[in-house]
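Dear all,

This email documents one entry for the complex benchmark we are building for the journal club exercise. For each entry we list the sequence lines for every component of the assembly. Then comes the predicted three-dimensional structure of the complex as a token string, followed by one or two observations. Please use this as the template for your own entries, and keep the labels exactly as they appear.
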Amino acid sequence: MSGPSAIRLLVLGAVRMHGRAHGYQVRNDLEFWGANEWSNAKPGSIYHALKQMAKQGLLLAHEVAPSTAGGPPRTEYEVTEQGTEEYFSLLKDSLVAYDQKMDVLSSAIGFIVDLPREEAVALLKKRVEAIEAWRAGVTAHYIPEDGPEQLGHIGEIMHLWVHSADAGAEWTRGLIERIEGGAYTFSGEGEPFVGVLAEDQENPYATDEVHPGDRE
Amino acid sequence: MSGPSAIRLLVLGAVRMHGRAHGYQVRNDLEFWGANEWSNAKPGSIYHALKQMAKQGLLLAHEVAPSTAGGPPRTEYEVTEQGTEEYFSLLKDSLVAYDQKMDVLSSAIGFIVDLPREEAVALLKKRVEAIEAWRAGVTAHYIPEDGPEQLGHIGEIMHLWVHSADAGAEWTRGLIERIEGGAYTFSGEGEPFVGVLAEDQENPYATDEVHPGDRE
DNA sequence: GGTAGCCTAGTCAAAGTTGAATAGAACGCA
DNA sequence: TGCGTTCTATTCAACTTTGACTAGGCTACC
């Protein structure tokens, strides 16, 4: 660690989609996206990220209005120009970085259509290269002179990592193909994808249902 | 989160192997195991875990002796009975839990030979079941009535997760086969595997070399 | 018309994580 | 002998994450 942060990207991206949003809206969007399943996007982290990024000038905080829908008053945020820069920089880094933090990659995939199609493809290709380089480095380093048996069951750990890296590379190659084949609508290709909940819309994924196999 | 913690398991396991160990020894072991590559095992976290677990009665702290090899005095730790219980409980949980935190699984694999062979196999089989259940739950929930196209590129995220889950299940099945086939030496099968560095031994993996593709 | 329960919106203390800083002792060597 | 470097061993402040808590308003229902 610590490469790009998933929450920062998620929060920045969510606020950016709304134009102006308060914490609770962001929180709902992330739940809508299923981000609670694959990232550490709990309320506390979200509000913390908002405040921190406001302090750093990436967001502009409007000390604001009592709620329009009951509940305590709320603070609304907008992304600044600096915040937009950070957003794209974070997005690109997250697509390329192979640090096996799936939450970072997942977030970036969620926003990938904010990039032009060719750039997305180029970054994903760089990702594949990064994975292959990581694989080469690790296998060279940890499967040394005297043969792998020497490591005993410890070798299974490297095996696991290499196996996952390969799966990651394979998935990435598939995605590249789909994108090159014309799937999805990228930046500058008309009607952008809008993945936020409107003020009054209900969240179809909001549920208390616990999926079998989940660990809380 | 927050399922079992990787550092706690690693630290507990390292101290346990030594019988009695100070922080620097633990730190070296973890580096020897390559844990710095696949977990957040930085010095700060290690010392924190030691102190915390001592406070909780899992470790016994001996306020101790000036270093025998230069440097400041050091504190040595032993695992208590309660700590041993916690160790095995953590170990078993980590083997079964599918919360896609690879560091937790990796740590557990490192210590899997502390269990009897049949128990290890049983736990790994439970793991495969947990993965399959998770997969079933998630696909049912996130690929709803109106077909998956509705999700747009967001569907790729679930695709990624499912792909990784499948890879994880496949690897686990492979490991089960190898273990059932007699690989490695488990608890109660004679000469236990010893993976710690002796007091004077040099660490063959200690290196500043940066593997290509690494993100710091 | 009261009250139980839920939705909105956010705060906070405790715990965990990070990277850098500290500091003593030994070692090389000019 | 004195000076810089490396190794040993740990601490610390800053930051992030977590889960539980707070608190106002609305709604359904008796």
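Observations: Helices of chain B lie at 6-18, 23-32, 35-38, 43-55, 81-96, 102-111, 117-142, 155-180. The two ends of chain B are 24 Å apart (CA to CA).
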